[in-house]
Amino acid sequence: MIKKQPHRIDLSQRLFIELGTSLHIETKDKIKSVSGKLVGMKVGKYLIVDISSIKSDTNLFEIDDLIRIKYINIEDIFNFSSKILTVLKKPDNLIFLQYPQMVKSCNIRNQKRVDCFLPIHSKIDGAITSVIVTNISLRGCRCLIDQFHSLTNINGQTIEMNFSYGDLDTLQIEGNIRSSQIQGSQIILGIEFDKISQFSQSILANLVPALQV
Known about the structure:
By secondary structure, the chain is mainly beta. The chain has two domains: 11-105, Electron Transport, Fmn-binding Protein, Chain A (Pnp Oxidase, Chain A, Roll), CATH 2.30.110.10; 114-207, Beta Barrel (Thrombin, subunit H), CATH 2.40.10.220. The chain has one helix and 13 strands. The strands form two sheets. The protein has a six-stranded antiparallel barrel with strand order 1-2-3-6-5-4. A six-stranded antiparallel β-barrel has the order 8-9-10-13-12-11. A hairpin with a 2-residue loop joins strand 8 (114-124) and strand 9 (127-136). The termini are far apart.
């Protein structure tokens, strides 16, 4: 009896992606685009994307449409090419995508990240909570937070971060939660800062001396 060889996945095919990650889907000609959420996959075969929560119309896409996918991981933006395998309307609006042959990094970071350990207070959706900043740049940071009450809606929300400095002073920086990943009992958040002033940059550099201002 001949044993079937297992399908091997090239390192370039690794998605570095969690279920629930938001995806931006566009046709190769960029005429049609929509947002969706990764809800399943069979490695090496297909991905399942839910486009029902944002009231998208599955008629936007047809079987064999060539598409491009972009998604944000904590460290970077990734993209890959694929095609539509199947379109479903019930029980949810789902599209099945061909598993990518290659995943590329956009390497968007032009500010270096510095590892750190900064306990701070933050506010998300009106709830005040403690977070730990584990690395930071002048454009954003990565944080650890205990399981948040509305994880399913946390991506894209605004976060208010309060950094204590001096004796009683606080530096307040707002940003957007670009990605989230569960790690044990905590969540890793990837945060992109709103445009911050030169003064705020100087305070951050004082808190984390390795940052270059």
